[in-house]
UniProtKB/TrEMBL annotation:
Residues 761-789, 879-890 have a biased composition (Polar residues). It comes from the Eukaryota. Residues 794-807, 868-878 have a biased composition (Basic and acidic residues). SUPFAM superfamilies: Calponin-homology domain, CH-domain (SSF47576), P-loop containing nucleoside triphosphate hydrolases (SSF52540). ATP binds at residues 480-487. This is Kinesin motor domain-containing protein. Residues 957-972 have a biased composition (Low complexity). InterPro entries: CH_dom, CH_dom_sf, Kinesin-like_fam, Kinesin_motor_dom, Kinesin_motor_dom_sf, P-loop_NTPase. It comes from Phaseolus vulgaris (Kidney bean). It holds the Pfam family CH. Signal peptide: none annotated.
Length: 992
């Protein structure tokens, strides 16, 4: 802001200076006396006005300069005069000056009070725009002209005011300057300026100058400027005048320049004062930042500086400084207020912080509680899952685990149909025909997402595998669309590592590990078979020539070996297993299809047989695990196969459809389960329908174009999970049962020996009696189960076995130990399966109501594939023969067996009340695998089927009394009587 320049100076002083420079003085021209006269006259006038205005008795009529100064020194007269003409202009006037004599330090106090009065007066006068003086003018004297000027200006103002403010104010200043007026400039008084003030004339103030001139013109006491200059120049020589005028002008110019400089300095000082409040602001900010104490000190220092400045200003009265100070004080008050607010805010913040901390503690406690509740919830969930699994185990449900393969590469614009994977459920987005996609959720025992590792997948399977060592049968099979990851789960990828190896290897590793741990209590023998079903043919994967060899499946064999002709390789370490698996994998039929580069074209089954013997008790147990990697179902249009591949695909799909039928029958608890419709279902029969623990891994591909197959796969899997197989049972034999089995084996051996003798006897008798029967028929009748397959080892000869032994064994097997009559039947294995497993087809095969009528309705597939069926036919034909086997003569128990066989082919069943295993072993004793020894004997089993046809047939069964060897000769009669009796009974039944 440019300062308003009040360039006032005394013309007289300037002229005086110029005259001095030129060696002459105003006094020379009587200026001094005139000045003195003028000063005294003006002083008298001022004193008179003051006396008149405030009644100051201390002011003489014609005071000297000193009198005048002393009279006004306290400032009281001046303040009162000012208050008189401008009431309230000075609210505080120290009226009674302290007596400096009576009161100690009174002088100092008085000086201070004078100073206060005079300062207040000067400030007000300054604000009114009237000429002022310096405090020192009053205290030190010598400069009273300025005081006189000021008083006369007041007088002038008073008169102007009393005159009703008519006309313009002669001093030109604003008598009541607005408070927001620009701050006046602090003036540093130079000597010439002081002098000019004494004259009360300002050049910058045109009115003032005019007033001065007019006043002096009117008063006549002071010559006008014109006159003054003329008077100065009058005594000058002509040639001196230009020089004097020139120096006069240059002096005026110099004075101007000096004034300008002073004004600029004053302006700068004003700016510095203005900067003070800003510094205060920054102090406030610093205080907010916690530096309050330091800043307080700073403020105090600044306050002190300002006070000093105030004092200095007091010394050089300047309304601008006072305004600045007031402003500063105001700002200081604001700062204090702000500080208070900051303090309050800070306190508030502290309270809030405290509350916040309390809240945080409360929340953290709450959170802790929630976390523990959540972990408890998790535990409960886990517990629930376990209980659910246990319940399922008790019910014998097939467990179903679902695994989603990772996507093969990114498929832009295609959304993965798998929308959500939970621990026990998987949700799919199912596209609908109407455009709006639906959501379908499937629940399983466990669901593994694409990121699940092989180890994670195996961890849930582990307990199941371990139960094999406790004598359970376990089946794990992988199901799913082609390329969905079945082989990956079961075997691992092609170049497998320790981490990526599949369930098969891990299972065996675990088995070996556990058997090693238990070696002090149980001795385990572990052996492995590896098969595949390719184009409905069972092939051994552990031989190189297996491609040409068709193997038989014999369900419910006594030792759990369903394919006895396949290689059974004993193993003792995982590396051996790995080698075998590699061999099997190499032999497995795979080929590239459009869906999978290495598509398995067959169902593969790795079977691990475990035989355990408890070292302390001698008890034995037997468990086996089937690890089945099914061939993938495929849509032939999609897999683009032709020729042999197409044929393979058709076989695969057919066998999987058969599996679906079996699952559906089991799920609906139907009495007939069509196991025999495919080799696959035949192989899995024990696992799906027996007392095994079964787990299915269902695999799905995440690709959107596989959604159809994915949905049908998951629906199928859900159905599988509803199947209840009944609680699994361990295959454990006590030592007593074992002993009995051994006895049975020895009896069988004895029986075989007798068979031989019988054959010889028969031959000799034949030649004597010329029987009508052919030789083959007789040998067929005489054929014992053990001799039906020539590829087995003959039973061990046991000379100690007698007929009594056999009878005892039979009685023992009734468990009750009584000698109650037993039904003893000899039957081919398929008959057992038919009844045991509710296989209607097979029941029909063997049903018939008369002797010799072995029948008829026959499943084509079975008739060609099952040797047992052929056996039955033979047996049936044989049964129609009126001839009795010579065996009857030598072995009564054989007779009974024979009778049952010939009489009722559809009832052919082994009965044992001791163990279901016994009967199974009996049925299958003809199919003992190469590596196992025979341990079967004759066993009897009470019939348990409630089938109506069986009930009917039961009536036809012969009740065989215990026979002693001595009665053997009567046997034909007994037998014929028996037959007659049965026939009669049957006829009666039919008539009814
Ligand atoms: N969980 C997985 N992680 C990584 N790769 C996988 C996974 N599952 C499958 N794959 C890969 O997907 C491809 C197809 O898998 P795989 O051969 O196991 O399918 P499949 O169901 O056995 O097929 P097919 O029925 O035709 O034999 C393979 O390259 C396999 O390595």
């Amino acid at each position: 802001m440019a300062p308003e320049l009040a360039l006032s100076f005394s013309v007289v002083s300037v002229i005086e200076d110029v005259l001095q420079t030129h060696g002459s003085r105003l006094s020379d021209i009587h200026l001094a006396s005139r000045k003195a006269e003028e000063a005294s006259s003006r002083r008298n006038e001022a004193a008179g006005w003051l006396r008149k205005t405030v009644g100051g008795k201390d002011i003489p009529d014609e005071p000297t300069e000193e009198d005048f100064r002393i009279a006004l020194r306290s400032g009281i007269v001046l303040c009162n005069a000012l208050n008189k003409i401008q009431p309230g202009a000075l609210p505080k006037v120290v009226e009674v000056p302290c007596d400096s004599v009576i009161i100690p330090d009174g002088a100092a106090l008085s000086a201070y009070q004078y100073f206060e009065n005079v300062r207040n007066f000067l400030v007000t006068v300054e604000e009114m725009g009237l000429p002022t003086f310096e405090v020192s003018d009053l205290e030190q004297g010598g400069k009273s002209s300025r005081i006189v000027n000021c008083v006369l200006a007041l007088k002038c103002y008073s008169e102007w005011k009393l005159g009703g403010k008519n006309g313009s104010w002669k001093y030109g200043g604003n008598p009541k300057p607005p408070t927001n007026a620009k701050p006046p400039i602090l003036r540093k008084i130079s000597e010439p300026f002081m002098r000019s003030l004494s004259k009360g004339i300002t050049l910058g103030d045109k009115d003032g100058l005019l007033n001065y001139i007019s006043t002096n013109s009117e008063g006549g006491s002071i010559p006008s400027l014109n006159l003054l200059i003329r008077e100065i120049l009058s005594d000058k020589k002509q040639e001196e005048i230009p020089i004097v005028v020139e120096s006069l002008l240059s002096k005026v110019m110099e004075e101007f320049e000096q004034r300008l400089l002073i004004q600029q300095e004053m302006f700068k000082t004003t700016q510095d004062y203005k900067a003070l409040p800003e510094a205060e602001d920054s102090n406030v900010k610093s205080a907010c930042n916690g530096e309050e104490m330091e800043e307080d000190e700073d403020v105090e220092v600044k306050q002190k500086e300002c006070d000093d400045a105030k004092y200095n200003v007091d010394e050089e009265p300047n309304s601008q400084n006072f305004k600045q100070l007031e402003l500063f004080q105001h700002q200081n008050e604001n700062v204090q207020e702000l500080k208070m607010m900051v303090h309050q805010t800070k306190t508030g913040m502290q309270v809030l912080q405290h509350k916040y901390q309390e809240d945080m503690i409360y929340l953290s406690k709450h959170l802790h509680g929630l976390a523990s509740a959540a972990s408890g919830y998790q535990k409960i969930l886990e517990e629930n899952r376990k209980l659910y699994n246990q319940l399922q185990d008790l019910k014998g449900n097939i467990r179903v685990y679902c695994r989603v393969r990772p996507s093969k590469g990114a498929q832009p614009n295609h959304q993965c149909p798998v929308s959500n994977i939970d621990e026990g459920s998987i949700s799919l987005i199912v596209p609908s025909k109407h455009g709006k996609d639906g959501k379908k959720t499937f629940n399983f025992n466990r669901v593994f997402g694409p990121s699940s590792t092989q180890a994670e997948v195996f961890s849930d399977t582990q307990p199941l595998i371990r139960s094999v060592l406790d004598g359970f049968n376990v089946c794990i099979f992988a199901y799913g669309q082609t390329g969905s990851g079945k082989t990956h789960t079961m075997s691992g990828p092609d170049n497998y590592t320790e981490e990526t190896v599949g369930v098969n290897y891990r299972a065996l590793k675990d088995l070996f590990h556990l058997s090693e741990q238990r070696k002090d209590t149980i001795h385990y023998d572990i052996s492995v078979q590896m098969l595949e079903i390719y184009n409905e043919q069972v092939r051994d994967l552990l031989t190189t020539d297996s491609a040409n060899k068709r193997l038989e499946i014999r369900n419910s064999s006594h030792n759990g070996i369903n394919v006895p002709d396949a290689n059974l390789v004993p193993v003792s370490s995982t590396s051996e297993v790995l080698n075998l698996m590699n061999l099997g994998q190499k032999n497995r039929a795979v080929s590239a299809t459009a869906m999978n580069d290495r598509s398995s074209r067959s169902h593969s089954c790795l079977t691990v047989h475990v035989q355990g013997r408890e070292l302390a008790s001698g008890n034995s147990l037997r468990g086996c695990i089937h690890l089945v990697d099914l061939a993938g179902s495929e849509r032939v249009d999609k897999s683009e196969v032709t020729g042999d591949r197409l044929k393979e695909a058709q076989h695969i799909n057919k066998s999987l459809a058969a599996l679906g039928d079996v699952i559906a029958s089991l799920a609906q608890k139907q009495s007939h389960v069509p196991y025999r419709n495919s080799k696959l279902t035949q192989l899995l029969q024990d696992s799906l329908g027996g007392q095994a623990k079964t787990l299915m891994f269902v695999h799905v591909s995440p690709e959107p174009d596989a959604i159809g197959e994915t949905i049908s796969t998951l629906k199928f899997a859900e159905r599988v999970s509803t199947i209840e197989l009944g609680a699994a049972r361990a295959n454990k034999d006590s030592s007593e049962v074992k002993e009995l089995k051994e006895q049975i084996a020895s009896l069988k051996a004895a029986s075989a020996r007798k068979d031989g003798e019988l054959e010889q006897f028969h031959q000799s008798a034949n030649s004597i009696t010329e029987t009508p029967k052919s030789k083959s028929q007789l040998s067929s009748i005489a054929r014992s189960p053990t001799s039906s397959h020539g590829n087995r080892k003959p039973p061990r000869e046991d000379s100690s076995s007698t007929v009594e032994d056999k009878k005892r064994a039979t009685r023992k097997l009734t468990k009750r130990g009584s000698l109650e009559p037993l039904e003893i039947r000899n039957s081919p294995p398929w008959s057992y399966h038919a009844e045991e497993n509710g296989d209607e087809d097979n029941k029909e095969l063997v049903s018939g109501d008369s002797l010799g009528k072995s029948t008829k309705k026959r499943n084509d597939g079975l008739s060609t594939e099952n040797n047992h069926v052929g056996d039955c036919d033979t047996e049936s034909k044989r049964s129609s023969s009126p001839m009795l086997s010579p065996t009857f003569l030598s072995d009564p128990s054989k007779i009974c067996t024979e009778v049952a066989t010939t009489n009722d082919c559809d009832e052919l069943e082994l009965a044992t009340s001791e163990s279901s295993e016994s009967d199974k072993s009996w049925q299958s004793h003809a199919h003992v695998p190469k590596t196992t020894s025979l341990s079967n004997g004759v066993a009897a089993r009470t019939k348990k089927s409630a089938h109506p046809r069986e009930t009917k047939n039961q009536e036809n069964r012969s009740t065989i009394p215990s026979l002693s060897p001595s009665s053997s000769r009567r046997q034909p009669t007994v037998v014929s009587q028996q037959r007659k009796h049965l026939q009669a009974k049957r006829r009666t039944g039919n008539a009814k």
